[in-house]
């Protein structure tokens, strides 16, 4: 299952945005309003929960500076990755797009597609306002 956020323009260079997304504590600034928990649990990992949803722990799996940051779920119960793809527009501006990829059964896909799509759009919208 793949879900892609809208592409947003961010007033940061691609290197600055990649560095920002590589630092997990910065994700607190990107979280939607309905976030009920956000906690950094390791230098490269955090756990969050949205109202009415279970807690999810994410960790930085790979950084391909300055164009990509890949986060992955720390639990095997819900295996997925969240990739931030960044492309430079000029020295002070870049485009960013988030890609959620996971392997889920049809019932799970049906349940999570709407909330995940809203979540990605909230992250992208908040990134645009940095």
From TrEMBL:
SUPFAM superfamilies: Bet v1-like. This is SRPBCC family protein. It comes from Patiriisocius hiemis.
């Amino acid at each position: 299952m793949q879900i892609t956020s809208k592409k947003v323009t961010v007033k940061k260079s691609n290197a600055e945005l990649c560095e920002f997304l590589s630092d997990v504590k910065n994700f607190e600034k990107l979280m939607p309003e309905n976030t009920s928990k956000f906690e950094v649990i390791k230098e490269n990992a955090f756990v969050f929960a949205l109202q009415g949803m279970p807690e999810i722990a994410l960790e930085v799996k790979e950084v391909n500076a300055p164009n990509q940051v890949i986060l992955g779920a720390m639990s095997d119960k819900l295996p997925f990755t969240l990739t931030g793809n960044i492309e430079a527009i000029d020295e002070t501006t870049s485009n960013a797009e988030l890609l959620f990829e996971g392997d889920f059964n049809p019932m799970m896909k049906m349940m999570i597609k709407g909330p995940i799509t809203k979540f990605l759009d909230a992250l992208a919208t908040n990134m645009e306002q940095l």
